[in-house]
Amino acid sequence: MNYTLHQLNVFIAIVDHESITKAAQSLNLSQPAVSIQFKNFQEQFSLPLTEVIGKKVYITDFGYEIAKAARNILFEVEEINYKIQQFNGLLSGKIKISIVSTGKYVMPYFISDFFMQNQGLDLYMDTSNKPVVVETLKDNQTDFALLTVVPPNLDVEQIELLPNYSFLVCNTEIWDQYDQNLMQILNKYPFLLREEGSATRFISERFLEKNKVRPTKKIEFTSNEALKQAILAGMGISILPLVGMKDQIKDGSLKIIPINDLPTVATWRLVWLKNKSLTPAARAFLAYLSEEKVNIQNKYFDWMHIYLPH
Question: I want to staple 120 with a disulfide (CB 3.0 to 4.6 A). Which of 4, 90, 115, 197 is the partner?
Fold first, then answer.
């Protein structure tokens, strides 16, 4: 055997994407370069790693076993690099964080300075919908998860990071066109919703039920960013977290609709499994958050108080 680490990375990319073309794109390499590396890797085995049927690449059972071993090898190499950094006096390792979609407006501000101060650390941050984030946490595939609602069946520890205020909003042009008459707007335009299971969907349905509102049509979106763009385009009205609307509220393209019982307030929480053995890097990150979270709130999120009822 005379395989290289580069060949292992190439093969894993092919397994993950089931395509040499897509593997090349993910690695920022040309397709011929990936094909040559894979050919050289395959020649070291008497059994095929893949099968090509039509134009699709299929991974053989043997190929999956080799991919599993390759991942273990690359993980150990990564650990060696981290240990070298530790002996040089650097905090090292990788921190994995899974966040719900709106969390992209929050988590980077709580991460940035910590990682700038610790150059030996790597970060993997995945953005998904709530069910995927919860499943990732439950299966111990991540160190931390950023959520507002923590499932009661998970035994977790947590640190509260930031209040999450949600408002009823619409396109300012529509608001003015209907002389700020909410019921006319609700009778004319659909109520836009997130998918089932999201915290924003729960807040919206509770609002509709409490106010006995029965919109003519409901339209679903799988991210708050898509939902916000739909509101800006005049497709309807909805409830959205304030943290993701800073620029649009400031420039006047979105209008907060004043109404009783809103805004609702939840809390962004960084959570982790209670029985998880946290790495030194993860423990250092929690210590940093405990010490700096108030400063981060004041520095980056103080603007939200302007829009809260007094």
Answer: 90
Per-residue pLDDT of the chain (310 residues; tens, 9 = 90+): 688 989 998 999 999 888 888 889 888 889 999 999 999 999 999 999 999 887 788 999 999 999 999 988 887 777 776 566 555 555 667 899 999 988 999 999 999 999 888 877 888 999 888 888 999 998 888 999 999 988 888 899 999 999 999 999 999 999 988 888 888 888 888 889 888 878 888 888 888 888 777 776 778 888 888 999 999 999 989 999 999 999 999 999 999 988 888 888 999 999 999 988 888 788 889 989 999 999 999 999 999 999 988 7
Cβ-based neighbours of 211, under 8 Å, separated by 6 or more: 261
Hey, what CATH class is 91-162+267-307 in?
alpha beta
**What CATH code is assigned to 5-86?**
1.10.10.10
Question: Is 163-266 CATH 3.40.1260.10?
Answer: no
Residue range(s) occupied by CATH 1.10.10.10 in the chain: 5-86
A 10 A CB-CB count for 194 gives 27
